[in-house]
């Protein structure tokens, strides 16, 4: 059929951390000038600072929650901090950056994998 497997399913995020879902809201995540893509990898030095997150929905009544977890921290072969919470922001208004929400957990960069 030509369709590529979903990297979230291949990496066992879907099925292990999340139930299957269909993405319906555009989300733009950038670390500096590097855009995060589904299945893409970034080096620890590239994620040292909090990313910019923009939710691309134009609904003035909607509020969103952003959660950044590592499903197998510090490494897939030794996930001793399973589902480590790196960042949580709630009450993010639509069409705004996550920085406009309420910080529940401030950003803590992902660990270096060994």
Automatic annotation (TrEMBL):
Pfam family, one: PBP
Gene3D superfamilies noted in UniProt: PEBP-like
Protein family per UniProt: Belongs to the phosphatidylethanolamine-binding protein family.
Protein name, UniProt field: FTb
Organism: Medicago truncatula (Barrel medic)
Organism phylogeny: Eukaryota, Viridiplantae, Streptophyta, Embryophyta, Tracheophyta
């Amino acid at each position: 059929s030509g369709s590529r497997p979903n990297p979230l399913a291949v990496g066992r995020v879907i099925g292990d951390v999340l139930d299957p879902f269909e993405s319906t809201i555009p989300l733009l995540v950038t670390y500096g000038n590097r855009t995060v893509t589904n299945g893409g990898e970034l080096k620890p030095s590239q994620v040292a600072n909090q990313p910019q997150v923009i939710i691309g929905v134009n609904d003035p009544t909607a509020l969103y929650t952003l959660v950044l977890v590592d499903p197998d921290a510090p490494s897939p072969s030794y996930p001793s901090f399973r589902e480590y919470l790196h960042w949580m922001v709630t009450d993010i208004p639509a069409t705004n950056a996550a920085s406009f929400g309420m910080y529940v957990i401030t950003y803590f960069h992902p660990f270096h994998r060994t």
